[in-house]
Amino acid sequence: MKYVPNPAHKRETTIQGPSRLRLAKTHCPDDITVEEREDLLAQAVPVSEKDPCARRYAMRRGEHGIELFDAKLTQLDDGEPEFHGHPATFVPANVLRRFREEGRIEGSEYRRLVKRFGCP
Fold first, then answer.
1. Greatest CA separation found in the chain?
2. Between the CA atoms of 45, 99, 102 and 35, what dihedral angle is there, to the nearest 10 degrees?
3. What one-character DSSP code corresponds to residue 18?
4. Where are the beta strands (DSSP E) in 55-114?
5. In this predicted model, what pLDDT tens digit does every residue of 58-109 receive, in sequence order?
């Protein structure tokens, strides 16, 4: 599994070329390094443990609090999944529960996020 940047979410030039940030796309934080992006993908929680190509969610604590990221399959490269990521606009409740169970978020943060995303 590897991370490949998507210029549609970047303000800067990446290995995929110059920025192609579009108004409809959320941009990635400017302070996040490629190494941190790779670490976030490696630690991301998949929606389905049985599917290596399943959408994944990651989180980090930034200066403004919890930042959530959505990683989507871009393609399979010789059978290896390649993902690109961007700030999440939704995180499923089962992923938020995993974050809580793993101690990444507190119970109060879990309840606030479930309410924010309208999760059952």
1. 42
2. 60
3. S
4. 56-62, 65-77, 80-87
5. 999 988 889 999 999 888 888 888 888 888 989 999 999 999 999 999 999 9
